[in-house]
Write a structure and sequence with these properties.
It contains 5 helices and no strands. By secondary structure, it is mainly α.
């Protein structure tokens, strides 16, 4: 959005909030006045940015669809293994990995669809916020999965060490 920030975020006449902070350090922790927060209203993308958004949406939707297909395949394999009484580690991994891959694929495809709507040029500010919210949800979910994975890995170390020493 090069050069278009001045339309979306008009400059403030005064820096009243910074004057308040200089006079009163406690004002730094106070939430900003909602009337002082600029709201983008006339957001517009040029042709190059529109093309970039289109390419991004294609890659995101393609990745999302392939992830959904892989997640479904892993779930099918996991369910097949489970139905044939293969109740081992591989069955659990297939089921969990399939569910997570399916969910990540759905979130990525949804974010890609938001960027596709943004490329269409209708309600650019609203669609941009929706696209960013979808990306935030995707990365939040991945972060939570990463933290859970690290915690489970650390917790499983004693079990694996115990198994190794019994051999």
């Amino acid at each position: 959005m090069k050069g278009n920030y001045s339309d979306a975020f008009p400059p403030r006449e005064s820096s009243r909030a910074s004057d308040d902070i200089a006079d009163n350090p406690a004002a730094a922790s106070a939430p900003p006045d909602p009337e002082e927060i600029p709201v983008p209203t006339g957001m517009r993308f040029d042709d190059e940015q529109t093309m970039l958004l289109g390419e991004l949406s294609i890659y995101m939707r393609s990745f999302g669809m392939l992830s959904i297909l892989l997640g479904i395949a892993l779930l099918v394999v996991g369910l097949y293994l489970f139905s044939n009484q293969y109740e081992d580690y591989a069955t659990q991994v297939c089921l969990f990995q399939g569910a997570f891959t399916l969910l990540i694929g759905a979130l990525t495809a949804r974010a890609g669809a938001s960027f596709a709507r943004l490329q269409a040029g209708h309600d650019e500010a609203g669609n941009f916020a929706t696209a960013l919210r979808s990306l935030k949800n995707l990365f939040c979910f991945q972060f939570i999965l990463l933290v859970i994975g690290v915690i489970l890995s650390v917790l499983s170390i004693p079990f694996f060490l115990n198994r190794l020493t019994k051999r």
